[in-house]
Amino acid sequence: MKIDVILGLQWGDEGKGKIVDYLADRYDMVARFQGGPNAGHTLVFDGRKHVLHTIPSGVFRPDLINLIGNGVVIDPITFEKELKGLDDAGVDYADRLFLSQKAHLILPTHRLLDAANEQAKGKSKIGSTLRGIGPAYMDRTGRNSLRVGDIHKNDFGERYDRLKQKHLAILTSLPKIEFDLEEEERKWLESMETLKQVPQVSSEYFVNRHLDFGKRILAEGAQGSMLDVDFGTYPFVTSSNTVTAGVCTGLGVSPDKIGEVIGITKAYCTRVGGGPFPSELFDEMGELLRKEGHEFGATTGRPRRCGWIDLPQLKYTIMLNGVTQLVVTKIDVLNIFKELKVGVSYVIDGEETEEVPFEFPKDISMKYESHGGWEKSLEGIHVFSEMPDAAQDYIRALEKELGVPITMISTGPDRKELLLRNVVV
Ligand code: GDP
Ligand code: IMO
Ligand code: MG
């Protein structure tokens, strides 16, 4: 069997949680391959909303295995809170939730370093979620990290202290941050006891054996391709590979095992935190998108920046990921607009281009094409041909430009608010 992938094609928050949750019942396992508690994936069903950060979005489906792969960084405190949320929701995850021994741990001092690094950057700060992601991945690459497989070892405490001292030494050269380290350490060590109870696996064997036995696996991306550490709007990115290649390194599967790559885009575009965003709207249209789309971060609650969909940006991330089918989410947010715009090219130094540049200059402008809005509710529509003509035209126009079939259209936050068009999974 091959492993299918779902990932975000913009700057995150495309609705990955919703789509993974919906499709999960067609799979035997959902696996996270990168990122950590910077992610906030929202699921809505049976009138309830759940937000997941580290735990895969397949966890609410009975019998399904959920794996946190080696590419993920785990904060035991957030993880414990998520488990508590599942307990409260009556979800039985025992024997269904597994951790890779090779996943890396986020220490309290990683969060402290994250905050101090951001403070030091002043005006050019990234707008990190301050969950310790960057410093944790730095220690992974720097070969200093503690991994899940280390937590039962006798020298774990000693290694923790050594790494903490290293962090404290670095912190002396950074701005001072208010942080109750003793209290955070106490919570961290306490939640480590919960982490110890979760079964650990050699995830590369675990994943490949399941594939060999004919089991169906869905890899769930976090963030979005424009936040990829190599291909995103560097340095305004996260610290992991969010593109399809990250599935290979974050789960231990070879490239020939990649099956369908399902790329998600909103019907417009958002970004949270700093960094370039060529199609950003600074006027009342942007405000309206934020209001209609409830565009506030699922992890930090920050207002998301909003703008029109950007086709050159999407073509770039479709190329990087080898996307085989597209999902368009939040199309209902456009219901109220009389006119919709689609970014078709960038103008940089007077030159028109469809290529994402090395860096987006500050004075970049975007050329747009206009589309008529439908100004109708899409509630209750589950068949494409029943959508208003203008909505069908909008989808067909995106499909034609992007060259990939749009197989799912999401019309609301609920699991059921979805329209399928020949989904191949
Ligand atoms: P993720 O990080 O990609 O999983 O996305 P988030 O959960 O951070 O943000 C997506 C937000 O949009 C959540 O509040 C979802 O409940 C909501 N959402 C998802 N799909 C739709 C949709 O089709 N329409 C509307 N109105 N909301 C949606
Ligand atoms: P999901 O999985 C949207 C953004 C942050 C910041 C930058 C770096 O919910 O789509 P980090 O905490 O990684 O150091 O932040 O990346 N960011 C996200 N934006 N959705 C996310 O995850 C994000 N995870 C990180 O806002 O600009
Ligand atoms: Mg999110």
Summary of the model, kept short:
Helices cover 30% and strands 22% of the residues.
Structural summary, described in words:
The strands form 5 sheets. The chain has a 10-stranded mixed beta sheet, with helices on both faces. Strands 14, 16, 17 and 18 form a 4-stranded mixed beta sheet that branches. A two-stranded antiparallel sheet has the order 3-4. The chain contains 11 helices and 20 strands. Helices cover 30% and strands 22% of the residues. Helix 2 (76-88) crosses helix 6 (181-197) and helix 3 (108-121) crosses helix 4. It has 425 residues and is an alpha/beta fold. The termini are close together. The site of 6-O-phosphoryl inosine monophosphate (IMO) has 24 residues, from helix 4 and strand 10.
Could you give the count of β-strands?
20
Strand order of the largest sheet: 9-7-5-2-10-1-11-15-19-20
- What is the helix content? 25-40%
Q: What low-confidence regions span 5 or more consecutive residues with pLDDT below 50?
A: none
Sheet-strand content, in percent, reads: 15-25%
Number of helices: 11
Structural class label: alpha/beta
Distance between the termini: 12 Å
Tell me the quaternary state. Answer: single chain
Q: For the CA atoms, what is the radius of gyration?
A: 21 Å
Q: Give the overall shape, derived from the CA principal axes.
A: globular
User: What ligand molecules are bound, each kind once?
Assistant: guanosine-5'-diphosphate, 6-O-phosphoryl inosine monophosphate, magnesium ion
Mean pLDDT: 97
**Main sheet: strands, sense, barrel:** 10 strands, mixed
